[in-house]
Amino acid sequence: MSPLLRAAPPQSGGPGSNELAQIAALLDTQPRSALKQAEALLRRRPGFAPAELLACQALRRLGKSASALPRLEALARRETRVPAVAWELAQAARELGESAKAIAALERLTRQQPTVSTGWFALAGELRKLGRPDDAWRADLSGVHASSHDPELVKAALAMNQERLADARALLETRLEQRGEDAPAMRLLGEIHWRSGAMSEALEYAARAVEIAPGFDLARDFLIRLLLQNNRLDEALEQAEVLIRSPLDNPGHALILASVLVKLGEHARAEALYRDILARRPDQPQVWQNLGHVLKTTGQQTEAIAAYREAVARQPTMGEAWWSLANLKTARLVDADIAAMRAALASIADTPGVPDAPDAHAEDRFHLHFALGKALEDAREYAASFDHYREGNRLRRALVPHDPDSFSAEVEATARTFDAAFLSGMGAGGCLAHDPIFIVGLPRSGSTLVEQILASHSLIEGTMELPEMMIIASRLQARVDEGEFTDFAAMAASLTPRDRLRLGEEYIEKTRVHRKSDAPLFLDKMPNNWQHVGLIRMILPHARIIDARRHPMACCFSGWKQHFARGQTFSYDLTDIARYYRDYAALMAAFDAAAPGAVHRVVYEDMVEHTEREIRALLAYLGLPFEPACLEFHANRRAVRTASSEQVRQPIFRDGIEAWTNYAQWLGPLRDALGPIEALYPGHAARTPALRPA
């Protein structure tokens, strides 16, 4: 029951208080008896307002709102300060479709009780019925603000923030049982489920909160973020397009729309949003940085540099912006930049921390170390550069979990699962589409170069690093983790031809949102898909797979000194990254043996030295004719989101092939962990220079 219905109880000990309490107790279970007793009391005490209100409440419960409404209107004219009368009048009017009368009553009610959210949400619903969406939106926002004063919700939010998730959930579920659907409670329940790892339930509650209160901006923002986490980009865009129309002037709404657009590859529109925000509020270092990211992706390098410099000018300790500047592979940071970064690092390193509190500058600190490592590398101060790279990696490694033993065991299990007997015996099945071309390998292996070359072909569309195959693989692995199967091999063996068809079609359908042209083929350059080559073969038997491989020392060192925005948790330790490379090479070798010729390998150094020969071989594997545009890949102005975005907009050059040798004296642990190069890099081991002693 709404608190509004309890807003005007009879004063204890007042005339007829016991009789009124008895009538009120009958309302929900015996409304006819309650009406009879209320009418009897009114005959004895004509015009007695509490009895008249109870009679009208009983009439509503009996489905006689038409009889209750005129009596409530008369009562409201006399009892102008009783919230319960306004509430009952509004409910009777709503039930009869008299929205104008309901709105008038609810406006009176919300003036009397502005901190009770129920009235605001009811008002919003009626305003929408009369075609007043902006007023309804503001009413919902007022309801959300009012709910921040609700003791039950405050108690539940406090329990949630203290990680007492079960207690918070129980409080909110009890509230919903007693009061019915309540948007703020459902929003909180959504977050509780999200924190508990129950994503489906989190999405369900967040979506319902928005459905009940369409003007609940915070709930819609939360829903968009959940949809993004689940790669449901079309739905996220739909919700973000609504949020941007909020009557509140909140730059955050434009920012979340821009983030969705970036994920969809709609960079021009995202750029326009960022520029609009900055035109009105230029003192926004984070927005300048975001703008820089978009400009870098679309090849506007000069403008990207300017945007990043605006960010660090406004916030000198903004490590990610400094790293973004340094990470522009064709840009150089000067002595003044190095001095500024060292000063920024000193200022946040000397900031006293609060015991047991999160380190507010942890990310700035490791970003600055990576940026200084790159700047000093460009200045050929290799010893100082290595020190900063090492410290940046140490700090980052402390923040991200990676279990190399467990990962190696998973890779070995995958190799055992997708052996020749399994692949040859699985028979027909899967989606027969020829559309996808997967480019796999380690980061910094030359995969972006391969992508740019192929995306320059008229029959191939370049997209980006798509997460869909990894999502499918994770969902299948979850069935093992939850005990449905003893291991991944048993789960894979259980997939019927229909299952494999459904999964392949899911991949094709989910990736459709990223396709902007009518080219028949498209690229998926998610490097980590090397772990799923067997699964790809099962569900997309006609898909092509290209393995981009680079010299182990060069590839691992390049990955180690590259800070990745997300994922790649193996890359922050020289031994870890070496083991990861070994796992990768072993699985690819196993798959080569199980399915000879299924994967085409592109060796980066060969592509650099014999570009046309390697491109022709690559296109022949794909069954495509050679096109000169593939040799002119650097003229392709498509968006590129990886760390190599500037390099692939230039002709191929050899400068970076042996850059790692400048650090050779410190890379003994990497070499030792890699082991024999020949096993990892067949036919090219002779290219490995001898390591100089440290």
UniProtKB/TrEMBL annotation:
<keyword id="KW-0808">Transferase</keyword>
<dbReference type="InterPro" id="IPR027417">
    <property type="entry name" value="P-loop_NTPase"/>
</dbReference>
<protein>
    <submittedName>
        <fullName>Sulfotransferase</fullName>
    </submittedName>
</protein>
<keyword id="KW-0802">TPR repeat</keyword>
<dbReference type="Pfam" id="PF13432">
    <property type="entry name" value="TPR_16"/>
</dbReference>
<dbReference type="InterPro" id="IPR019734">
    <property type="entry name" value="TPR_rpt"/>
</dbReference>
<dbReference type="Pfam" id="PF13181">
    <property type="entry name" value="TPR_8"/>
</dbReference>
<dbReference type="Pfam" id="PF13469">
    <property type="entry name" value="Sulfotransfer_3"/>
</dbReference>
<feature type="repeat" description="TPR">
    <location>
        <begin position="183"/>
        <end position="216"/>
    </location>
</feature>
<dbReference type="InterPro" id="IPR011990">
    <property type="entry name" value="TPR-like_helical_dom_sf"/>
</dbReference>
<feature type="repeat" description="TPR">
    <location>
        <begin position="285"/>
        <end position="318"/>
    </location>
</feature>
<dbReference type="InterPro" id="IPR026634">
    <property type="entry name" value="TPST-like"/>
</dbReference>
